[in-house]
Specification:
Blueprint (H helix, E strand, L loop, with lengths): L1 H19 L5 H15 L4 H35 L2 H13 L4 H12 L5 H8 L3 H4 L6 H18 L4 H9 L6 H26 L26 H12 L2 H4 L7 H6 L2 H13 L6 H34 L3 H11 L3 H20 L2 H12 L11 H14 L9 H10 L3 H28 L1
Helix pairs in contact: 1-2, 2-3, 2-15, 3-9, 3-14, 3-15, 4-5, 5-8, 5-10, 6-8, 6-20, 8-10, 8-21, 9-15, 9-18, 9-19, 10-11, 10-19, 10-21, 11-14, 15-18, 17-18, 17-19, 17-21, 18-19, 19-21
């Protein structure tokens, strides 16, 4: 047990140090951590690499298509201007007096198919035109950045929660994972809304050339919502036969609700948004989206390799007695998951990497700690996501996207944006505990 703890501590320390000080890419950092762990545990080098390859391939088999298709869907929505159109429609629906609330809703929705940094860069262009006596630019910037951050870390099919589901064996119950993520996101986004409204009052943004741009997105009908809403509804619907016995004969729900099929349908709807000259540009969009997906998949697969090496060490067997002997094993695992993810996030900056690594580390412990049901695993993913939110600061690339594209001073960002992400993380942890106890 001591040897495993030492090996794990050295491997994680090496991962953090190489990322922070040597600027080593997370892909190679994870492979190095896996190799170090295996060597300290006394495993032959060839056996370590075979174990790493097995873990790498197993994880990509589960989520490879999902990440690739989801990346394409998000890229098409971004390039066609659909995201900006969606934002305008929601703001109009909520009314001028509820602009901060509408921006929060927009952020949560857009953050599901689109990376939070891309979403903020595009949607931040709308904020100057929306600012008024009831909503300052700082309030809107904080609401948008933290709401995008919410769904990015808590709701599949964003890469982090999706990889966590694969690591923990919950891919076949992705609909339930999404529902729990959405349920957890509601209070998390609510906390972000109230804090953004309060803290933003004290802040003044510097004027940037970017923030002065007023976007005029193309006009679409209600179809702009379909690429986002349809996959979510279909994936969630696939879980209904498990809860409603009378629907067990509806086999088509499991077909169209398969995450790959659902995302392909969403991608099909997004292609309907392509207009005019865009019909000649969309192949380039897809190529760029697949390049982005490739980087994500490499990091995710390397996380799976690291997790598989840890799993092969027999850690689950050694900890079995501890988790069996205590009646609060489940709660312990939730707090441990949150703490590990928070440490990794704070140390190396990437929420996605923190989620992937933490879920890989904890995967061997789920059975021995009593986390066997799909709902338990979904709750654990929520706790991990909460840890990966706390906190976003200077070593997080998204922190700099928020400050540079909003005109928010770095010191003010620490007092507002970073503080909100901390509150969001603890809110997600509290929600995971409540759901688990219920």
């Amino acid at each position: 047990m001591i040897q495993i703890a030492i090996a794990l501590a050295i491997a994680i320390t090496a991962l953090i140090a190489t990322s922070r000080y040597l600027k080593l890419h997370a892909f190679f950092g994870l492979l190095l951590a896996a190799l170090l762990f295996g060597l300290i545990m006394g495993k032959p080098v060839v056996e370590i690499f075979i174990t790493m390859q097995a873990g790498f391939g197993s994880l990509l088999q589960q989520i490879g298509l999902l990440v690739a298709i989801g990346s394409c869907l998000g890229m098409v929505m971004e390039k066609t201007g659909a995201m900006a159109t969606l934002g305008n429609k929601i703001v109009t629906a909520f009314g001028a007096s509820r602009t901060i609330l509408s921006i929060t809703v927009i952020g949560v929705l857009v953050g599901i198919p689109v990376f939070c940094d891309s979403g903020f860069i595009i949607l931040s262009r709308l904020l100057p035109a929306l600012a008024s006596s009831v909503a300052t630019p700082a309030q809107l910037s904080l609401a948008l950045s933290t709401s995008l951050y919410t769904s990015h870390t808590l709701i599949p099919p964003t890469p982090g929660p999706l990889a966590a589901a694969a690591n923990l064996g919950a891919t076949t119950h992705l609909g339930l994972v999404m529902l729990v993520g959405i349920a957890g996101s509601l209070p998390v986004a609510t906390v972000a809304f109230f804090l953004a409204r309060r803290l933003g009052l004290r802040l003044t943004l510097s004027t940037t050339s970017h923030s002065q741009v007023k976007a005029e997105p193309p006009s679409y009908s209600g179809i702009v919502f379909l690429p986002l809403i349809v996959p979510i509804v279909l994936i969630a619907a696939a879980s209904l036969p498990s809860f409603v016995p009378s629907l067990q004969s509806w086999k088509f729900l499991t077909v169209i609700g398969n995450p790959v099929v659902a995302l392909l349908i969403g991608l099909g709807f997004s292609c309907l948004l392509i207009r005019g000259k865009q019909s000649q540009e969309w192949p380039t969009w897809i190529a760029n989206a697949l390049k982005d997906a490739g980087i994500i998949l490499l990091i995710t697969g390397a996380g799976g390799a690291f997790g598989n090496v840890i799993k092969s060490s027999g850690l689950d067997v050694l900890l079995k007695e501890f988790f069996v002997s205590t009646q609060v094993a489940g709660l312990w695992l939730l707090f441990i998951a949150f703490a590990v993810a928070a440490i990794l996030k704070t140390a190396q900056g990437s929420s996605t990497s923190a989620i992937i690594i933490t879920s890989s580390l904890l995967a061997p412990l789920t059975v021995t700690s009593g986390f066997t049901s799909p709902l338990d695993l979904a709750t654990l993913i929520l706790a991990i996501g909460g840890g990966a939110m706390a906190v976003s600061h200077a070593n997080d690339s998204y922190f700099w996207v928020v400050t540079q594209f909003s005109g928010l001073d770095e010191r003010d960002a620490y007092k507002s944006y970073t503080l909100i992400t901390l509150a969001q993380g603890f809110t997600a942890l509290i929600m995971s505990v409540i759901i688990y106890l219920l």
